[in-house]
Write a structure and sequence with these properties.
The protein has 370 residues and is of the alpha/beta class. The chain has 9 helices and 13 strands. The two termini are 41 Å apart. It holds the Pfam family SurE.
Length: 370
Amino acid sequence: MMPPGLVSNLQEALLNRKGDSSSNSNAEQEQSTEKLEAVEFDESKPIVLVTNSDGIDSPGLTHLVEALVQQGLYNVHVCVPQSDKSVSGHSVTLRETVEAASAKINGAIAFEISGTPVDCVSLGLSGALFSWSKPMLVISGINRGSSCGHHVFYSGVVAGAREALLCGLPAVSISLNWKKDESQENDFKDAVSVCLPLISAAIRDVEKGTFPKSCFLNVEIPTSPSSNKGFKLTKQSTWRSTLNWLAVSSSRYPTGHFLANQGGLGLQFAQLGRDASAAGAARRLATQKKNLEIVESIGAAGKSDPNRVKKYFRLEFLDNQQEEMDEDLDYRALESGYVAVTPLLLSSHIETDVQMAASDWISSVLLGEL
């Protein structure tokens, strides 16, 4: 059973919905902090940390932060990846220096991070980047493309919320079920209007101490947000796309190529339009070209054997035919037009029969001395 507070919040949301020295580096960091502090900070207001997996120029982030700032109820801080990390999962950047560059978002203190969504949340909450107490709520999104079923394991936006819960903070991940031939950029603005009541209810009950502490919420908004059928409490399904590897003739991806299906579960290497500025697009393109060159050069480093075989492959996601019929499952509710809200735990719940079966097998193996 779900906590009564969570159910009441969903109901209420539905009702309300209509290269220098270290000293130089420290000096630069202090100067950067002084500039950021120009954004008015009200100690009487709760802090909200916003991250995503699509980058700072994504319309989902832009509209969400704008709406939170306009409400005037929160101190809004933003920490997002420099480039698209939509399928980065719960990966972190280790043994590499992570760059944090200040970004301009009206009414918010914002940074772009040369890492993953998990890096963004972890660094943001560490105390090393922001000089404030921990936020009341972490919001990850709004992502372009759904994150239902087993896609939560690939999803960078879900991982951002999961990392917040790992750090002991309540969190919500939000995704829009973007479809190539149906969706429009303005749908993100409608998606924000849909989820704002739920965000407000979450912050209110975090302050009261009644918000669930053992899970975070994965919110999936249907393709046409303004005509949704309301909020529905759902369960994580076993739905997933098929990982389809295609043999290709070259290690380089053609200009403008998408590594994704229509649902948007992929990395975009060159088609960087979206709503990015020209400078932002150029920066991302340069970064991605550099990354591709590094991957290719490392692959053949120190091995000049002419008989060595090299093959190239490209990964695509292919939608499966769905067989699960339970209307309370996340993707079923989403495709039916509901806003699917799924509580997700840090660890998978193991059913009793599964636990017994595993115990019996382990015992038999150990008794047989392997």
